[in-house]
Write a structure and sequence with these properties.
Residues 1-91 form the Chorismate mutase domain. This is chorismate mutase. Helix content is 85%, strand content 0%. It is mostly helical and 92 residues long. It has one domain: Chorismate mutase (Chorismate Mutase Domain, subunit A, Up-down Bundle), CATH 1.20.59.
Length: 92
């Protein structure tokens, strides 16, 4: 037996999770296209200066949104590492 208030909170969390998954899927579609382009152009799979700029940007955004910047950096680092793995596979 669940409490109605808790049920509404959980429904909101479920909706947010769905949105996050859809956004991540869209992001990975774009980064896969970037990976193919890099492979075709002979560009390296990783771009450390871009990665650092993105991490700094995300940390600023996290602070503005009252989200732990350490968490946001770890989350973005996980995504970046996965993208680089995909790019390396495309490179062959």
């Amino acid at each position: 037996m669940t409490d109605e208030t808790l049920g509404r909170y959980r429904q909101s969390i479920d909706n947010i999770d769905m949105a996050l998954v859809c956004l991540l899927a869209e992001r990975f579609k774009v980064t896969q296209a970037v990976g193919r382009y890099k492979a075709e152009q002979g560009l390296p799979p990783a771009d450390p200066s871009r990665e650092e700029a993105q991490i700094a940007r995300l940390r600023r955004l996290a602070e503005e949104a009252d989200l732990d910047p350490e968490f946001s950096e770890a989350f973005l680092r996980f995504i970046i590492d996965e993208v680089i793995r995909h790019h390396e596979r495309l490179r062959g």
